[in-house]
């Protein structure tokens, strides 16, 4: 069984790499703009490879594993909806409202299939968990989409996060889907890091970002207990560096009176890359934050306050260091 799993994982990674390689010559060009971190036109749409392996893993889970049909089918349908809407946006920049509508539809599908935050039984608690789940999925999807423009940052972070989710989930549909996504991202990453020959594009960053957030919810969807809450915190802890960057940037721009929908290069990772670190090094810092999130998550059952400190303090230090070094860019 172990060798069969390894063989399937390697095969999916190679299949993803083949699809990504084909997209380099066919994908729409991402021309550098007001929010870009790259300087030359670079193809996008490489996310088709990881999304295809994710969907393959979900289909396999539905066929092989008992009890997986409803949640796996819901996540599969949600990712296909997002991929369709996002691919259209990659080819031809569309209205943000259409993109948001696709994200809302995907989130509602997943929540309807039972993937929500842990909650006690009761009508109001169920409704609140559903609303929080939808809001969380939309935020997490957009956060990963916002950071796709830097070499390896999104794909590498999600690869590490998917492997962590798979290790916690173990055998079952969640582990199967997470491992399939990790295989697809492993096939994509050599084309995106350290030198970016292609980006995930919306067709990859949105469904993949949505999937890791949804799989995180699925870990804690078993009921209302300390174990369920701890399990549901895995994805927020793993990707806390990315989510904190996006939230902090939105808050900082809102306080400055800037229009939040306007394209910009004001994320912390972008300021770091523009002022004092090469793109590959910024990605390594963010990969380190995934590791810190993994360690903080394991510390949570023994000492939640220490766990939060381990998670938050490095982000504060990073933000202060970046803002100081990038001060000339912000004047």
Your description of this structure?
The chain is mainly alpha-helical. It is built from 15 helices and 2 strands. A two-stranded antiparallel sheet has the order 1-2. The N and C termini lie far apart (59 Å). The model has no long low-confidence stretch (mean pLDDT 89). One of its GO terms (biological process) is cell wall organization. Keywords: Cell membrane, Magnesium, Membrane, Metal-binding, Transferase, Transmembrane, Transmembrane helix. Its EC number is 2.7.8.33.
The structural class is mainly alpha
Describe the sheet with the most strands: 2 strands, antiparallel
The number of strands is 2
In whole angstroms, the N-to-C terminal distance is 59 Å
Multimerization state: single chain
InterPro entries: Glycosyl_transferase_4
Subcellular location: Cell membrane
Main location: membrane
EC number: 2.7.8.33
Write the layout of secondary structure elements.
Layout (H helix, E strand, L loop, with lengths): L1 H23 L4 E2 L11 E2 L4 H17 L4 H23 L4 H17 L10 H24 L6 H17 L3 H16 L13 H18 L6 H7 L1 H5 L1 H16 L12 H8 L3 H21 L4 H22 L1 H4 L1
Antiparallel strand pairs: 1-2
Q: What attributes does this structure have?
A:
globular, two-stranded antiparallel sheet, 2 strands, metal-binding, 331 residues, transmembrane, metal ion binding, membrane, mainly alpha, 15 helices
Short description:
The protein is mostly helical and 331 residues long. The chain contains 15 helices and two strands.
């Amino acid at each position: 069984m172990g060798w069969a799993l390894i063989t399937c994982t390697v095969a999916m990674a190679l299949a993803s790499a083949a699809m990504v390689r084909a997209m380099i010559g066919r994908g729409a060009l991402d021309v550098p703009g007001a929010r870009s971190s790259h300087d030359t036109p670079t193809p996008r749409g490489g996310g088709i490879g990881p999304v295809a392996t994710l969907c393959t893993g979900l289909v396999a889970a539905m066929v092989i594993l008992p009890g997986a049909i409803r949640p796996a089918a819901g996540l599969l349908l949600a990712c296909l909806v997002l991929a369709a809407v996002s691919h259209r946006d990659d080819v031809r920049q569309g209205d943000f409202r259409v993109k948001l509508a696709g994200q809302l539809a995907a989130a509602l599908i997943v929540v309807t299939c039972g993937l929500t935050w842990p909650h006690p039984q009761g009508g109001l608690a169920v409704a609140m968990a559903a609303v929080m789940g939808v809001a969380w999925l939309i935020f997490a999807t957009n956060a990963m989409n916002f950071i796709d423009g830097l070499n390896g940052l999104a794909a590498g972070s999600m690869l590490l996060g998917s492997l962590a989710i798979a290790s916690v989930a173990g055998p079952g549909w969640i582990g199967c889907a997470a491992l399939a996504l990790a295989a697809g991202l492993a096939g994509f990453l050599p084309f995106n890091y350290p030198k970016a020959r292609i980006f995930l594009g919306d067709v990859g960053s949105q469904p993949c970002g949505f999937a890791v957030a949804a799989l995180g919810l699925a870990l804690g969807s078993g009921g209302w207990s300390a174990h369920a809450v701890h399990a549901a915190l895995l994805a927020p802890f793993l990707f806390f560096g990315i989510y904190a960057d996006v939230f902090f940037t939105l808050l900082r721009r809102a306080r400055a009176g800037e229009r939040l929908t306007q394209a910009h290069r004001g994320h912390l990772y972008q300021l770091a890359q523009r002022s004092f670190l090469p793109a590959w090094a910024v990605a390594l810092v963010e990969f380190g934050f995934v590791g810190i999130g993994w360690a903080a998550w394991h510390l949570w059952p023994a000492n939640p306050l220490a766990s939060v400190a381990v998670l938050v303090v490095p982000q504060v230090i990073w933000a202060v260091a970046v803002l100081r070094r990038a001060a000339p860019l912000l004047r």
